[in-house]
Amino acid sequence: MHIKELDYLSPATLAEACGLLHSGGPGAKVFAGGTDILPDLKRGRVNAASLISLAGLDGLKKIEKRNSTQPHPSTLYPLPSTLFLGPLVTPDALDRSALVREIFPGLSEAAASMAANQVRGLATLGGNLCSAVPSADLPPSLLTAEAELVLTARDGERRLALKDFFLGPRKTALRLEEILTGILIPELPRGTGTAYDKFQARDASALAIVGAAARLTVKDNKIVKALVAIGACAPTPLLIAAAGEFLAGKEPSGQNFARAGELAAQAIKPISDLRGSAQYRREICRVLTIRVLKRAFERA
């Protein structure tokens, strides 16, 4: 199927992009790498009258540490510093960033696991989030990061916790005239480790059958805080509240990690398809949860 003729627009500023999105109405779509929207246009999954390229907006390509001036949703007060990720950052850039590897190695692992080299160099973090594909690799790690999104429209911006962003397969809380302009990760406490792992049918270009992310903060051999997120096993990526609540206050032991894995397997909502049965996915979820918890503890 061929893509029908449409207008291609390349704004030089964010304000111009927001204006074009406003004037273009429902038929205007923003994009960056195009690895999701172009196949969707060919398949007829997305209808568009115009494409607004964000590729020229260099401010959306940054990875940097910033001082926090606004309270984060997880606290009542501003946190000391925040890792800012621009939505045009590619998975390859995330994987190569020394800052990301230092602050949040689980996200670096998730980026490195995505697709083939060519796709990792072209796709974007923003596209991976806004496409809201249930098997996407980056959302589980960002959920355990308690990431916050900056969503910008012509009349201003708003902040939204990532956990409130995904509404269903390919459905998000992004409003018609909004552009994702930043992903904010609050500073992690001392003694925190993160990890990501996934199971796929083959090594190259395969979607996750199950993806698992974990974050542990440990002090005096006790787990102060635990977050576990699972992808590809429900209509949206899931934060497994039961696993985190169980681990809080306990020792970081193999027995406790095994119980958290069981709780994660019970909490997901997998389907059966050509890549695996629901029960198969539950078992893989259990195993991967234990694996990422152990790795996060080693890093903590």
Word description of this protein:
The chain is 33% helix and 26% strand. The protein starts with 6 loop residues before the first strand and ends with a helix. It folds into three domains: 7-53, Uridine Diphospho-n-acetylenolpyruvylglucosamine Reductase, domain 2; 58-186, Uridine Diphospho-n-acetylenolpyruvylglucosamine Reductase, domain 3; 192-299, CO dehydrogenase flavoprotein, C-terminal domain (Enolase-like, domain 1), CATH 3.30.390.50. The chain has a five-stranded antiparallel beta sheet. A four-stranded antiparallel beta sheet has the order 11-12-13-14, with helices on both faces. It has a three-stranded parallel beta sheet with strand order 1-3-2, with helices on one face. 45% of the residues are buried. It has 300 residues and is of the alpha+beta class. The chain has eleven helices and 14 strands. The model is unreliable at 74-79 (pLDDT under 50). Helix 9 packs antiparallel against helix 10 and helix 10 packs antiparallel against helix 11.
